[in-house]
Amino acid sequence: MMTDQQRLIAAIFGDEGSDQFDPKGLAVYQRNLRATARRALKISFPTVVQLIGDELFQQASDRLLVVSPPIEGDWGLWGRGFADLLDQLPELESYPYVGDCARLDFTVHMASREPRSNVDFDSLQLLGSKPIEQLRLQLSESVKLLESDYPIVDIWVAHQEETPDPQEWFDAAKEKMQRGQGQCGLIYRAQHRPEVRQLGATEQRWFGALREGRTLSEALELTLQSDFDFEEWLPIAVSQQLIAGIHSSQQ
Protein backbone atom coordinates (compact mmCIF):
# COMPACT_ATOMS: atom_id res chain seq x y z
CA MET A 1 0.00 0.00 0.00
CA MET A 2 1.34 3.42 -0.95
CA THR A 3 2.02 6.01 1.76
CA ASP A 4 0.60 9.53 1.46
CA GLN A 5 4.06 10.78 0.47
CA GLN A 6 4.45 8.09 -2.22
CA ARG A 7 0.94 8.82 -3.53
CA LEU A 8 1.75 12.50 -3.79
CA ILE A 9 5.06 11.79 -5.52
CA ALA A 10 3.27 9.53 -8.01
CA ALA A 11 0.80 12.32 -8.70
CA ILE A 12 3.57 14.89 -9.11
CA PHE A 13 5.66 12.91 -11.57
CA GLY A 14 2.97 10.91 -13.34
CA ASP A 15 -0.68 10.85 -14.20
CA GLU A 16 -1.78 8.62 -11.35
CA GLY A 17 -4.06 10.54 -9.02
CA SER A 18 -2.99 13.94 -10.35
CA ASP A 19 -6.61 15.06 -10.66
CA GLN A 20 -6.90 14.87 -6.87
CA PHE A 21 -4.50 17.78 -6.38
CA ASP A 22 -4.45 21.44 -7.40
CA PRO A 23 -2.17 21.85 -10.48
CA LYS A 24 -0.50 24.99 -9.12
CA GLY A 25 0.09 23.34 -5.78
CA LEU A 26 1.55 20.28 -7.50
CA ALA A 27 3.97 22.45 -9.46
CA VAL A 28 5.19 24.17 -6.31
CA TYR A 29 5.54 20.89 -4.45
CA GLN A 30 7.34 19.35 -7.41
CA ARG A 31 10.00 22.06 -7.36
CA ASN A 32 10.42 21.82 -3.60
CA LEU A 33 10.54 18.04 -3.63
CA ARG A 34 13.15 17.94 -6.36
CA ALA A 35 15.27 20.52 -4.56
CA THR A 36 15.05 18.57 -1.30
CA ALA A 37 15.94 15.30 -3.05
CA ARG A 38 18.92 16.86 -4.79
CA ARG A 39 20.25 18.35 -1.57
CA ALA A 40 19.85 15.04 0.24
CA LEU A 41 21.70 13.06 -2.43
CA LYS A 42 24.50 15.63 -2.63
CA ILE A 43 25.13 15.06 1.06
CA SER A 44 25.09 11.28 0.66
CA PHE A 45 27.04 11.13 -2.64
CA PRO A 46 29.67 13.92 -2.60
CA THR A 47 32.17 12.01 -4.74
CA VAL A 48 29.59 11.25 -7.41
CA VAL A 49 28.63 14.93 -7.68
CA GLN A 50 32.24 15.78 -8.46
CA LEU A 51 32.60 12.90 -10.91
CA ILE A 52 29.55 13.50 -13.09
CA GLY A 53 28.77 17.19 -12.57
CA ASP A 54 25.70 19.01 -11.29
CA GLU A 55 23.55 18.75 -14.42
CA LEU A 56 23.69 14.98 -14.81
CA PHE A 57 23.54 14.52 -11.04
CA GLN A 58 20.31 16.50 -10.87
CA GLN A 59 18.82 14.50 -13.73
CA ALA A 60 19.75 11.25 -11.98
CA SER A 61 18.33 12.54 -8.69
CA ASP A 62 15.03 13.43 -10.34
CA ARG A 63 14.90 10.00 -11.95
CA LEU A 64 15.54 8.22 -8.65
CA LEU A 65 12.74 10.22 -7.07
CA VAL A 66 10.35 8.75 -9.64
CA VAL A 67 11.52 5.13 -9.71
CA SER A 68 12.44 4.79 -6.02
CA PRO A 69 10.77 7.47 -3.90
CA PRO A 70 11.60 7.68 -0.20
CA ILE A 71 9.61 5.36 2.01
CA GLU A 72 10.74 6.98 5.27
CA GLY A 73 10.57 10.52 6.54
CA ASP A 74 14.35 10.74 6.96
CA TRP A 75 15.90 11.85 3.66
CA GLY A 76 19.30 10.75 4.96
CA LEU A 77 18.21 7.12 4.56
CA TRP A 78 17.16 7.57 0.94
CA GLY A 79 19.42 6.71 -1.97
CA ARG A 80 20.31 3.05 -1.62
CA GLY A 81 19.24 2.42 -5.23
CA PHE A 82 21.17 5.37 -6.66
CA ALA A 83 24.22 3.29 -7.61
CA ASP A 84 22.11 0.81 -9.57
CA LEU A 85 20.43 3.68 -11.40
CA LEU A 86 23.81 5.20 -12.29
CA ASP A 87 24.92 1.82 -13.64
CA GLN A 88 22.08 2.01 -16.17
CA LEU A 89 22.61 5.59 -17.39
CA PRO A 90 23.73 5.71 -21.05
CA GLU A 91 25.69 8.89 -20.29
CA LEU A 92 27.95 6.92 -17.94
CA GLU A 93 28.55 3.94 -20.21
CA SER A 94 32.18 4.99 -20.65
CA TYR A 95 32.58 5.54 -16.89
CA PRO A 96 31.58 2.18 -15.38
CA TYR A 97 33.34 2.92 -12.08
CA VAL A 98 30.83 5.62 -11.08
CA GLY A 99 28.30 3.09 -9.78
CA ASP A 100 30.78 1.55 -7.35
CA CYS A 101 31.93 5.03 -6.32
CA ALA A 102 28.30 5.71 -5.44
CA ARG A 103 28.15 2.50 -3.42
CA LEU A 104 31.21 3.60 -1.49
CA ASP A 105 29.78 7.08 -0.93
CA PHE A 106 26.55 5.66 0.46
CA THR A 107 28.36 3.14 2.67
CA VAL A 108 30.46 5.97 4.11
CA HIS A 109 27.35 8.09 4.59
CA MET A 110 25.54 5.32 6.46
CA ALA A 111 28.63 4.66 8.59
CA SER A 112 28.53 8.31 9.65
CA ARG A 113 25.04 7.70 11.02
CA GLU A 114 26.01 4.68 13.09
CA PRO A 115 26.23 5.25 16.85
CA ARG A 116 29.73 5.39 18.23
CA SER A 117 31.06 1.90 18.93
CA ASN A 118 32.10 0.86 22.41
CA VAL A 119 34.72 -1.84 22.79
CA ASP A 120 34.03 -4.47 25.42
CA PHE A 121 37.51 -4.39 26.94
CA ASP A 122 36.69 -7.05 29.53
CA SER A 123 35.99 -9.53 26.74
CA LEU A 124 39.55 -9.14 25.44
CA GLN A 125 40.74 -11.05 28.50
CA LEU A 126 39.28 -14.18 26.91
CA LEU A 127 42.37 -14.24 24.68
CA GLY A 128 44.39 -15.32 27.69
CA SER A 129 41.89 -17.74 29.20
CA LYS A 130 40.23 -19.55 26.30
CA PRO A 131 41.62 -21.46 23.31
CA ILE A 132 41.30 -19.50 20.08
CA GLU A 133 39.30 -22.37 18.57
CA GLN A 134 36.45 -21.27 20.87
CA LEU A 135 36.73 -17.51 20.29
CA ARG A 136 35.04 -15.24 17.77
CA LEU A 137 35.97 -11.63 17.25
CA GLN A 138 32.98 -9.35 16.70
CA LEU A 139 33.42 -6.44 14.32
CA SER A 140 31.82 -3.08 15.08
CA GLU A 141 28.51 -2.33 13.37
CA SER A 142 30.03 0.43 11.24
CA VAL A 143 32.67 -1.86 9.70
CA LYS A 144 31.88 -2.68 6.08
CA LEU A 145 33.83 -4.16 3.17
CA LEU A 146 33.23 -3.06 -0.40
CA GLU A 147 34.95 -4.87 -3.24
CA SER A 148 35.13 -3.37 -6.72
CA ASP A 149 36.73 -4.04 -10.08
CA TYR A 150 37.79 -0.38 -10.01
CA PRO A 151 40.13 1.67 -7.76
CA ILE A 152 37.27 3.18 -5.77
CA VAL A 153 39.36 3.91 -2.66
CA ASP A 154 41.91 5.96 -4.59
CA ILE A 155 39.10 7.83 -6.36
CA TRP A 156 37.33 8.52 -3.06
CA VAL A 157 40.48 9.79 -1.33
CA ALA A 158 41.33 12.00 -4.31
CA HIS A 159 38.01 13.80 -3.92
CA GLN A 160 38.32 14.54 -0.19
CA GLU A 161 38.96 18.18 0.68
CA GLU A 162 41.51 17.30 3.36
CA THR A 163 43.66 15.17 1.02
CA PRO A 164 47.00 17.04 0.77
CA ASP A 165 47.98 15.85 -2.71
CA PRO A 166 44.87 14.68 -4.59
CA GLN A 167 46.75 14.42 -7.89
CA GLU A 168 48.84 11.62 -6.41
CA TRP A 169 45.65 9.64 -5.80
CA PHE A 170 44.23 10.49 -9.21
CA ASP A 171 47.43 9.19 -10.81
CA ALA A 172 47.31 6.02 -8.71
CA ALA A 173 43.68 5.42 -9.73
CA LYS A 174 44.49 5.98 -13.39
CA GLU A 175 47.40 3.54 -13.23
CA LYS A 176 45.26 0.87 -11.59
CA MET A 177 42.53 1.31 -14.21
CA GLN A 178 45.06 0.86 -16.98
CA ARG A 179 46.13 -2.41 -15.35
CA GLY A 180 42.55 -3.49 -14.70
CA GLN A 181 43.20 -3.54 -10.96
CA GLY A 182 40.35 -3.05 -8.52
CA GLN A 183 40.29 -2.37 -4.80
CA CYS A 184 38.55 -3.61 -1.70
CA GLY A 185 37.71 -0.81 0.69
CA LEU A 186 37.35 -1.02 4.45
CA ILE A 187 34.83 1.47 5.78
CA TYR A 188 34.65 2.10 9.51
CA ARG A 189 33.83 4.85 11.96
CA ALA A 190 36.76 6.00 14.05
CA GLN A 191 35.84 8.50 16.76
CA HIS A 192 33.36 10.92 15.19
CA ARG A 193 33.84 10.36 11.47
CA PRO A 194 33.96 7.50 8.97
CA GLU A 195 37.27 6.42 7.46
CA VAL A 196 38.10 4.52 4.28
CA ARG A 197 41.23 2.59 3.41
CA GLN A 198 42.27 -0.09 0.99
CA LEU A 199 42.58 -3.68 2.15
CA GLY A 200 45.30 -5.92 0.85
CA ALA A 201 44.54 -9.51 -0.08
CA THR A 202 45.43 -10.92 3.36
CA GLU A 203 43.42 -8.34 5.30
CA GLN A 204 40.52 -8.86 2.94
CA ARG A 205 40.48 -12.58 3.76
CA TRP A 206 40.90 -11.79 7.45
CA PHE A 207 38.03 -9.30 7.67
CA GLY A 208 35.89 -11.50 5.46
CA ALA A 209 36.35 -14.43 7.83
CA LEU A 210 35.50 -12.31 10.86
CA ARG A 211 32.41 -10.95 9.16
CA GLU A 212 31.30 -14.51 8.38
CA GLY A 213 31.56 -15.38 12.08
CA ARG A 214 34.46 -17.79 11.79
CA THR A 215 36.47 -18.63 14.89
CA LEU A 216 39.67 -16.76 15.58
CA SER A 217 41.59 -19.93 14.81
CA GLU A 218 39.93 -20.28 11.40
CA ALA A 219 40.46 -16.62 10.55
CA LEU A 220 44.14 -16.72 11.51
CA GLU A 221 44.62 -19.82 9.39
CA LEU A 222 43.84 -17.70 6.33
CA THR A 223 46.76 -15.38 7.14
CA LEU A 224 49.48 -18.00 7.65
CA GLN A 225 51.16 -17.41 4.29
CA SER A 226 51.61 -13.70 4.99
CA ASP A 227 53.28 -11.32 7.43
CA PHE A 228 49.99 -10.58 9.22
CA ASP A 229 50.65 -10.14 12.96
CA PHE A 230 47.54 -10.45 15.13
CA GLU A 231 49.27 -9.12 18.24
CA GLU A 232 50.24 -6.01 16.31
CA TRP A 233 46.84 -5.69 14.62
CA LEU A 234 44.67 -5.98 17.76
CA PRO A 235 45.63 -2.73 19.58
CA ILE A 236 45.30 -0.81 16.31
CA ALA A 237 41.87 -2.34 15.73
CA VAL A 238 40.81 -1.36 19.25
CA SER A 239 42.05 2.23 18.85
CA GLN A 240 40.23 2.53 15.51
CA GLN A 241 37.08 0.95 17.00
CA LEU A 242 37.05 -1.80 14.38
CA ILE A 243 35.99 -4.41 16.90
CA ALA A 244 33.23 -4.56 19.49
CA GLY A 245 34.66 -7.42 21.52
CA ILE A 246 35.42 -11.13 21.68
CA HIS A 247 32.96 -13.91 22.42
CA SER A 248 33.48 -17.52 23.47
CA SER A 249 31.38 -20.40 22.22
CA GLN A 250 31.84 -22.02 25.63
CA GLN A 251 31.37 -19.85 28.68
UniProtKB/TrEMBL annotation:
This is DUF2063 domain-containing protein. Residues 5-86 form the Putative DNA-binding domain. InterPro entries: DUF2063. It comes from Motiliproteus coralliicola. It holds the Pfam family DUF2063. It comes from the Bacteria.
